């Protein structure tokens, strides 16, 4: 389960809306993870099943938030390595310890592409608010379970009939306020989008921000690396470029956003090029 899916289960057990569950950061489903969540004045909750365990560990004076997190710790398990691969891995790890490794955003950040939604934030930037809303709520995905697939299929068929969509949302237990708003203001897609859970909207903003960062950094590495030393891996959102040898890169590269006044001209130009590729 993703953090959002686990939080929805916790909300159901506690009898509160999903938005009432607070957490510090998001985890994807690729791993066995432990995460703290909180509910304001929430009840004691205990749940054990195959893929999820919830237990109440205590109370605290304020909700869990990312500001309270000092970071994550990970243990990675690699399986099925043959002898030569293991030898190469050990050599490669020593190189990484010495030279570092470019910290590209990998496929887990881009669930929007895996689920066929495209770049929701880009649709919003271009003013295609109805498209952004429809792709966010109703885009079909091979990862959907039967219930979710049926819900999305129903939304796509009923799209534009906001009363019918509201009834579907009521039965599906999601996005009621979005379609309640459209019933009253049928053309106000921006107002409807603002009623999507903040956590979900932020995921799509962060995905697009991370895509621009990857494109800018890949362009920088390509520019600084002789062609015979380039290693190119195909990521879900585009090619990720590495150097076979040491590379004198800046230690940090700012994420695109509002606070770039102190960023040097080269980095600004790379981010501008990444936007220009999208006609922005």
- Continuous helix count: 11
Global mean pLDDT? 91
Strand order of the largest sheet: 1-2
Quote the distance from N terminus to C terminus.
35 Å
Spans where pLDDT lies below 50 across 5 or more residues: none
As a whole number of angstroms, the C-alpha radius of gyration is: 22 Å
| Major sheet size, sense and barrel closure | 2 strands, antiparallel
Structural class: mainly alpha
Assembly state of the chains shown = single chain
Strand content: 5-15%
Estimate the global geometry from the Cα principal axes. Answer: globular
Helix content: 40-55%
Overview in brief:
The protein has helices at residues 3-14, 83-99, 111-114, 120-125, 129-138, 146-158, 162-172, 176-184, 189-193, 198-224, 265-276, and strands spanning 21-23, 37-39, 46-49, 52-55, 230-235, 238-243. The chain has 280 residues and is mainly alpha-helical.
Primary descriptors:
280 residues; mainly alpha; two-stranded antiparallel ribbon; single chain; globular; 11 helices
Describe the fold and architecture.
With 280 residues, the protein is mainly α. The chain is built from 11 helices and 6 strands. Strands 1-2 form a two-stranded antiparallel ribbon. A two-stranded antiparallel ribbon has the order 3-4. A hairpin with a 2-residue loop joins strand 5 (230-235) and strand 6. The relative contact order is 0.09.
What topology emerges from the helices and strands here?
Elements (H helix, E strand, L loop, with lengths): L2 H12 L6 E3 L13 E3 L6 E4 L2 E4 L27 H17 L11 H4 L5 H6 L3 H10 L7 H13 L3 H11 L3 H9 L4 H5 L4 H27 L5 E6 L2 E6 L21 H12 L4
Antiparallel strand pairs: 1-2, 3-4, 5-6
Helix pairs in contact: 6-7, 7-8, 10-11
């Amino acid at each position: 389960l993703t953090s959002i899916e686990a939080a929805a289960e916790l909300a159901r057990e506690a009898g509160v809306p999903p938005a009432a569950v607070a957490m510090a950061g998001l985890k994807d489903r690729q791993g066995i993870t432990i995460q703290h969540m909180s509910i304001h004045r929430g009840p004691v909750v205990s749940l054990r099943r195959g893929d999820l365990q919830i237990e109440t560990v205590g109370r605290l004076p304020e909700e869990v938030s990312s500001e309270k997190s000092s970071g994550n710790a990970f243990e990675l398990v690699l399986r099925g390595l043959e002898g030569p691969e293991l030898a190469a891995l050990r050599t490669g790890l020593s190189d990484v310890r010495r030279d570092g490794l470019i910290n590209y955003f990998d496929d887990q950040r881009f669930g929007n592409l895996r689920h066929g939604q495209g770049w929701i934030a880009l649709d919003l930037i271009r003013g295609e608010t109805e498209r952004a809303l429809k792709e966010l709520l109703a885009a079909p995905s091979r990862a959907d379970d039967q219930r979710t697939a049926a819900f999305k299929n129903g939304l796509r068929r009923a799209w534009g009939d906001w009363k019918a969509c509201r009834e579907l949302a009521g039965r599906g237990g999601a996005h009621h306020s979005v379609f309640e708003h459209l019933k009253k203001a049928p053309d106000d897609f921006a107002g409807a989008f603002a009623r999507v859970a903040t956590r979900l909207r932020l995921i799509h903003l962060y995905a697009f921000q991370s895509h621009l960062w990857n494109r800018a950094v890949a362009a920088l590495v390509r520019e600084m690396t002789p062609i015979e030393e380039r290693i190119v891996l195909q990521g879900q959102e585009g090619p990720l470029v590495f150097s076979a040898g040491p590379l004198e890169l800046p230690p940090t590269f700012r994420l695109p956003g509002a606070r770039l006044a102190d960023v040097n001209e080269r980095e600004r130009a790379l981010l501008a090029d990444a936007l220009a590729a999208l006609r922005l």
